[in-house]
């Protein structure tokens, strides 16, 4: 589709860009200051302004959707795979997800009516594709928000030295998530993303410095000489290797959120610059954290990684990261509830109004998502293995397959088939095939890992009061 201005034309940030092909509205709406959005309909002053995210705010929302749970498992993945394979696989995953993230933006510009990944599935594969991706999207975010609640409970246990029953901590995390996730627009949630991103970065870099200056990691033997046993190349079993790769995929598993963020941007044409900055920053952070923490901790690295420091630093790091984990939980609850809410009220006046139907529907969505996530967090209380399972079962399905199909859908019949076209077709076919392999093998590895964790240590029972933080 054509645009009146190019990306290099700088519009005032406070103006909302409306796709020309869909900017049709009545004179009455124009006089009221309303514009017609392809997703939200009439956006005016009387209801929530869903098109309020600038490109800088988009960067921090994208970063917070990425830098959260996944970064806490990167050092452990390096321990399984070895330093060199870990770095290489991380960079490959980063390159793939940067490309697929870019495709989301181009597909959104070509199809302005797209709000979520299910809309893209409907355009490509009809109703069956739409419903399949809708179910997968909801399950993915429900599991991620559940694992975020589990992470919060681990942090509260670590900071308080298991001050109360773990089930209570999970319930507290759920209650806080429900309250803040009920904020209606991403524009108003963006300040939380700033806080969360800063807290996560400060915490993990504190951990990184601590592991470099401490005598030995928390779980290492207390007596006798000690040296890190890090390896250039690991010797994992097939299941262990695939589970580790899946956890690296989840480190970039925020891509489905990119659809919603692009839809709520004032000008979606600035989306690409936000994605490139986000992906580059996340990759640098992951490599630094993974290399330094694994180098100094070796096989005694913990998952979540914040348990790798000593008792005092463990409490400090978890205290710093708790707001970040809460924001991760809040953001994922919000995005899942927003998807259900928009789909239920789309093409209705209640979507952008302050009516009783609007508020009742919105609060019911956030409550339902929170309750389901709470049940997942309490029912599968094994953090590392849960992260791997989510990354394998849903990460590739949400971050690889749909975006490769989206590019092929929009570019399968070019005017001329150049070498660049053949190269990009090959790359997207590789993403489809590689993602399918990882989906099957990674899920197998994660399931074996969960079974092994319960066999060796007994794990933690569902709705347990036991301390789920790393023992030190």
The residue fraction in helices comes out at 55-70%
State the domain count. Answer: 1
Distance between the termini: 58 Å
Structure annotation, total helices: 15
The CATH homology group name: Hydantoin permease
What does the main sheet amount to?
2 strands, antiparallel
Pick out the low-confidence regions: 1-14, 20-33
Order of helices and strands: HEEHHHHHHHHHHHHHH
Instruction: Using the 3D structure, state the CATH architecture.
Output: Orthogonal Bundle
Order of strands across the main sheet: 1-2
Mean of residue pLDDT? Answer: 82
The total strand number stands at 2
In CATH's first tier, which class applies? Mainly Alpha
Q: Which structural class do you get from the secondary structure elements? A: mainly alpha
- What is the approximate shape? globular
CATH topology: Hydantoin permease
Note the beta-strand portion: under 5%
Pfam family, one: Aa_trans
Domain Amino acid transporter transmembrane: 53-447
Protein name: Amino acid transporter transmembrane domain-containing protein
Membrane topology: Multi-pass membrane protein
């Amino acid at each position: 589709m054509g645009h009146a201005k190019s990306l290099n034309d700088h519009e005032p940030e406070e103006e909302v860009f409306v796709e020309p092909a869909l900017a049709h509205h009545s004179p009455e709406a124009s006089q009221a200051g309303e514009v017609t959005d392809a997703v939200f309909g009439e956006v005016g002053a009387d209801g929530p302004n869903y098109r309020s995210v600038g490109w800088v705010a988009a960067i921090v929302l994208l970063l917070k959707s990425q830098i959260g749970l996944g970064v806490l498992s990167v050092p452990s993945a390096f321990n399984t795979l070895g330093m060199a394979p870990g770095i290489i696989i991380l960079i490959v995953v980063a390159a793939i997800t940067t490309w697929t993230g870019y495709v989301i933006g181009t597909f959104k510009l070509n199809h302005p009516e797209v709000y979520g990944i299910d809309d893209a599935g409907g355009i490509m594969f009809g109703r069956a594709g739409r419903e399949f991706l809708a179910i997968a999207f909801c399950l993915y975010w429900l599991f991620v928000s559940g694992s975020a609640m589990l992470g919060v409970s681990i942090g509260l246990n670590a900071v308080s030295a298991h001050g109360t029953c773990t089930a209570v901590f999970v319930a507290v995390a759920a209650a806080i998530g429900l309250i803040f996730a009920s904020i209606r627009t991403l524009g108003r949630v963006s300040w939380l993303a700033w806080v969360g991103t800063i807290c996560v970065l400060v915490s993990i870099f504190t951990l990184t410095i601590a592991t470099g200056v401490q005598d030995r990691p928390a779980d290492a033997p207390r007596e006798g000489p000690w040296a890190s046993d890090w390896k250039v190349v690991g010797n994992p079993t097939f299941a262990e290797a695939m589970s580790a790769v899946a956890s690296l995929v989840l480190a970039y598993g925020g891509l489905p959120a990119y659809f919603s963020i692009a839809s709520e941007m004032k000008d979606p044409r600035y989306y690409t610059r936000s994605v490139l900055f986000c992906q580059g920053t996340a990759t640098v952070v992951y490599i630094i954290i993974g290399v330094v923490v694994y180098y100094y901790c070796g096989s005694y690295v913990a998952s979540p990684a914040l348990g790798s420091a000593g008792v005092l630093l463990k409490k400090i790091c978890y205290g710093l990261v708790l707001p970040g984990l809460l924001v991760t939980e809040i953001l994922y609850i919000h995005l899942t509830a927003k998807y259900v809410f928009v789909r239920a009220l789309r093409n209705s006046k209640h979507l952008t109004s302050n009516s009783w139907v609007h508020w009742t529907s919105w609060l019911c969505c956030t409550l339902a998502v929170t309750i389901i996530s709470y049940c997942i967090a309490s029912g599968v209380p094994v953090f590392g293995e849960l992260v791997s399972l989510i990354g394998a079962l849903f990460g590739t399905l949400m971050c690889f397959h749909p975006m490769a199909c989206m590019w092929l859908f929009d570019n399968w019949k070019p005017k001329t088939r150049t070498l660049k076209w053949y190269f990009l077709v090959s790359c997207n076919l590789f993403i489809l095939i590689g993602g399918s392999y990882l989906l099957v093998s990674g899920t197998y590895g994660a399931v074996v890992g969960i079974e092994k964790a319960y066999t060796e240590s007994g794990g933690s029972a569902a709705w347990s009061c036991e301390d789920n933080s790393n023992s030190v």
